[in-house]
Amino acid sequence: MVARFAGSGGGFLYGPQWVDRPPGLIALYGLAQHLGPFGVRLSAGILAVALVAALAWAAAGVGGHLAARWAAWTGFAFASSTLFGAQRLTGELAAAVFVSVSVAALIRAARISRSRAQVVLFGALAGASAAIAMLMKQNFADGFVFAAVLLVAGVSTRSNRLTYRPCRMLLTAAGFVLGALVPAAVTVWWAGDHGGLGALLYAMFGFRADAAAVMAGGSWTAPLHRLDELAGVALVSGLAFLVVHLVISHRRRLRHLNPLAWAVVATGAVELFGVFAGANFWSHYCIALIPMVALAAGLSANRSTPSGRWTRRLVVLAVIVTAVVSPIRSFEYAHTPSASYTTGRWIADSARAGDSIVVPFTHANVINASRLRPGYPYAWSLPARTLDPHLTLLVGALEGPDAPTWVVRWDSSNSWGLDPDHRVDAALGAHYARVADVCGHPVWLHQGIDRQLAPTPHLAVCRSRGH
């Protein structure tokens, strides 16, 4: 929905819709739309395959073909799991791919490349991929952390310098920096024509601080419920067991200042911090752990030791869980009615070209399904609570000369305590007419506008999971 209208005007970073996401992800969705009606799902599948291949490439650079196979199977187990919502195109999935490419290229630059040109080129690929990962999801600094720890630890002791030679490390670092500067420079240039660098930095980073303050003062019921769900899927998928096993069985390697082990642990710690730091605890955040878990599992499974055998067993178990659970859940998703999609398509069938829509505070997927232009820039609750806490902009939009054509009230009028004085209801009563109830949700049409309304869908197609 954001990508569809990006660049069409509207005064915000991405046109009429504001979102706290970097431009790389919006561009990825823009490309996905060119693949047809299932382009987003196809793109997710392509990225999952790329992630498995990149993980194999990274592990092969250290442990050979056997390690590559086990890293690939580990990546498959989690990058194909519907328990983590990996069938969806998320910033986490896209960023994990580029983190894995960055790690694989850096390993080749630091350990394998035979010429200076190869060292610099692989270093540049690593840097560019690390930067692009942050343009997919802004907290994915994994590639930078991995590079910094590996290069610094590699030259910190004499024993490591035999493998990580200072001259090679210097060339790798130079290539990495040059590679990272390219996507960074392109992004800065793009931002200059789309609201400025300040608007971009606020969307990617500044908003998080403001939103954290808002969340701290709100209810923790929903986040804690999602935390329970996240813990459940981490256990059922086998991810939690594999992480704990890898940490316990390989903790001794850290005592010997092994650069690769320290890089994996430091980057894994950053990934784990990212899962919990945002305090939202969505299950797809676990995708962030895949690069380091798969690399560590591939190297561990390559060993003929008791810990290596247990690693292989846990990877096989995770693969079996995914192979059984994902097809079942996918069939369920495909055959379960969606109230949001049904409502959005009803509005699409009733609307005309040029119409616009608002669904206050929630369910941006209704807007997406309608294919109508959003009439209010904050389609999610957290941006609205943070950037329009008194709903001045929303009420002004409903009462203004360019008011949205359609309004759908999905939640109660005072959700999250946003509208204690019921100003939104007052604006609807003064300027809109309630024309239908679709899937139990009232739909309002602006007064003075006539539309041929589509037949109201039967409630049987509205028994929804909400997505």
Topology summary:
Blueprint (H helix, E strand, L loop, with lengths): L1 H4 L17 H10 L6 H41 L11 H22 L3 H21 L5 H13 L3 H4 L4 H27 L4 H20 L4 H17 L1 H11 L9 H19 L12 H12 L4 H30 L3 H12 L5 E3 L5 H7 L2 E2 L6 H7 L4 H8 L6 E3 L14 H9 E7 L2 E6 L21
Parallel strand pairs: 1-2, 1-3
Antiparallel strand pairs: 3-5, 4-5
Helix pairs in contact: 2-5, 3-4, 3-13, 3-14, 4-5, 4-6, 5-6, 5-8, 6-12, 9-17, 11-13, 11-14, 12-13, 15-16, 18-19
Rg over CA atoms: 24 Å
Please provide the count of β strands: 5
Class per helix and strand makeup: mainly alpha
What is the H-and-E element order? HHHHHHHHHHHHHHHEHEHHEHEE
Q: What number is the mean pLDDT?
A: 91
Number of helices: 19
Distance between the termini: 14 Å
Uncertain spans: none
| Biggest β-sheet description | 5 strands, mixed
Shape: elongated
Please estimate the helix content: 55-70%
Query: What is the spatial order of strands in the main beta sheet?
Result: 2-1-3-5-4
What share of residues are in beta strands? under 5%
